[in-house]
Amino acid sequence: MKLLVNGEPHDVSAQSLDALLAELEFEGEWLATALNGELVRSPERQNCRLDEGDRVEILTPRQGG
Fold this sequence. Notes:
Elements: E1 2-5, E2 8-11, H1 17-23, E3 32-35, E4 38-40, E5 55-59
Parallel strand pairs: 1-5
Antiparallel strand pairs: 1-2, 3-4, 3-5
């Protein structure tokens, strides 16, 4: 399935947001996720189904200086 993840096209096999995070090797409960502009909380990711063409945003904390 083709998705837009953080503005970049990805061809993935994941059917849920939780599975997508694993497939793309994102780890940690501190991630923030949105599907088509709507916030998806961590406990909801397992049941959050993905469809062809969905837009997913994955935000991770970064250290700056």
